């Protein structure tokens, strides 16, 4: 896996004052310019609030496999897997089937 936060487009601004400041609701990082905030959102269009990390949506399955989850972490998911408590294996299967290009195109009877 490529590593989620090593592209250098974002920085923590706890100790720096900016005229513009935006805080990511997922990874909790602060951005000191609209361009940095926009770049973060376009490059890291998915993430996991539980683990406070943003990443590209094509890394959803990598994250699901590397970290333990009891429900779907994909923002906006309305499936049964976004509610309640599930096994980590169930969540990995759900992410693969519903939140990856590979799974979505090869799954015909998804839940």
Keyword list:
disordered N terminus; 111 residues; two-stranded antiparallel ribbon; alpha+beta; 4 helices; elongated
Concise account of the structure shown:
By secondary structure, the protein is of the alpha+beta class. It has four helices and four strands, in the order ββαββααα. It has a two-stranded antiparallel ribbon with strand order 1-2. Strands 3-4 form a two-stranded antiparallel ribbon.
Question: How much beta, percentage-wise?
Answer: 5-15%
Largest sheet, strands/sense/barrel: 2 strands, antiparallel
Q: What's the gyration radius in Å? A: 15 Å
Summarize model confidence as the mean pLDDT.
83
The CA-CA distance between the termini, in Å, is 27 Å
Quantity of strands, as a count: 4
């Amino acid at each position: 896996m490529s590593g989620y936060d090593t592209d250098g487009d974002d920085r923590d601004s706890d100790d720096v004052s900016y005229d513009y400041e935006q805080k990511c609701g997922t990874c909790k990082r602060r951005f000191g310019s609209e361009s940095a905030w926009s770049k973060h959102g376009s490059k890291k269009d998915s993430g996991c609030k539980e683990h406070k990390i943003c990443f590209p949506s094509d890394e959803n399955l990598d994250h699901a496999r590397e970290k333990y989850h009891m429900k779907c972490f994909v923002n906006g998911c309305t499936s049964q897997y976004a509610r309640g408590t599930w096994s980590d294996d169930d969540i990995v299967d759900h992410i693969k089937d519903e939140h990856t290009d590979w799974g979505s195109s090869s799954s015909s009877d998804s839940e």
